Amino acid sequence: MKEMIGYCGLDCEKCDAYLATVNDDQALREKTAKLWAELNGAPILPEHINCQGCRVDGIKTVFCDSMCEIRQCALKKSVTTCGDCPELENCRTMGEVLSNNPEILENLKE
Questions:
Q1: Residue 96 CB-density burial (10 A; 0-12 exposed, 13-18 middle, 19+ buried)
Q2: pLDDT by residue, tens only, the chain of 110 residues
Q3: Listed residue (18, 87, 107, 19) closest to 54, CA to CA
Q4: How far is it, in rounded angstroms, from Cα 96 to Cα 24?
Q5: Are 25 and 32 in contact (CB under 8 A)?
Q6: From CA 60, how far away is CA 57, in angstroms rounded?
Q7: How far apart are alpha carbons 101 and 29 in whole angstroms?
Q8: Rg over CA atoms, the chain
């Protein structure tokens, strides 16, 4: 499995927060902060858009670090990703993510 696949199966290398961080791209931080603030109805600022991936050591967005229920559950269960969890198919926490992003199941199976 690729190191940059998140606990949930999303590919961190395709995430705008990750891309803005590794490329030190301030314009992408600003664009992402604006979009995420609108989508979430929350005050998200460009300085909040810094993340090096949820399964690796390093900086994470506030959401990924402490608010993501999926990441917190995976850490608690000590699984590499949700793909290693025997409850994945019936997981309420992963349910919406799986239904909206069918490609993540492929990432979790790799």
A1: exposed
A2: 577 899 999 999 999 999 999 999 999 999 999 999 998 888 999 999 999 999 989 999 988 888 899 999 999 999 999 999 999 888 998 988 888 888 888 888 87
A3: 18
A4: 31
A5: no
A6: 9
A7: 23
A8: 14
